[in-house]
Amino acid sequence: MRDFKRLQNDPPQGVQAAPLDNNVMVWHAVIFGPDDTPWEVLSFIHLITISYVYSCKLTSKGGTFKLLLEFTEEYPNKPPSVKFLSKIFHPNVYATGKICLDILQNQWSPIYDIAAILTSIQSLLSDPNPTSPANAEASQLFEKDRRVIYLTSYIMSNLIILLLITYLLFTQEYNNRVRIVVEESWIDDVSSTGATDDTVDESTTAGAEASTVFTSVPATAGGSDV
């Protein structure tokens, strides 16, 4: 009953469990599909189809999966027997519903309780271990999908880089040409300003020299003043 009190006082998110009324060694549990995973989300088409076939209105898109836990007198020194009652297609779940999970086998510790078991199973739903398959078909399909997702992600990331490079190389060509013209206008402006200043200086110098020559010519003999 220690585990039941813990579940009542501090229930983990997404799991529920309680013993049978007439047998505390047998528990029924429910795990809700983890958020943002295929176990939680149904497509709109699936929702409409299920609602139509079963003549019901679904208010939740999450999966609900039932489990059976059977304890022995050796618990918590030995783990309980846990299996899914709901149909499950998962790399680490056998067709019988038995779960291939390390903490239910060789990695069990007395520190684990029912809450830890259920949250570990919930985590296993979204993070399978394909190296230890209990369902070969599910494991193969999971690996295939993961490769496709990785390849798609790799292609998309490289495509984004390629598009960015293309944008920088080609869509900026007009701006680059304009920038060149602007820079050339600066050079032309500087050059023309320098040339004008030189011309003014030369004219001024020539005029001063002519004036000097004119005033320095001596008066001729016998000439008269004007």
Please name the CATH topology of the domain at 2-134. Ubiquitin Conjugating Enzyme
Strand fraction equals 5-15%
CATH superfamily of the domain at 2-134: Ubiquitin Conjugating Enzyme
Shape: elongated
Please write the string of helix (H) and strand (E) elements.
HEEHEEHHH
**Could you describe the largest sheet, including whether it forms a barrel?**
4 strands, antiparallel
Average of the residue pLDDT scores: 78
What's the CATH C level of the domain at 2-134?
Alpha Beta
For the termini, the CA-CA separation is 140 Å
Oligomer: single chain
Count of runs of 4 or more consecutive helical residues: 5
For the record, the CATH architecture of the domain at 2-134 stands as Roll
Sheet/helix structural class? alpha+beta
Task: Please give the radius of gyration in angstroms.
Answer: 44 Å
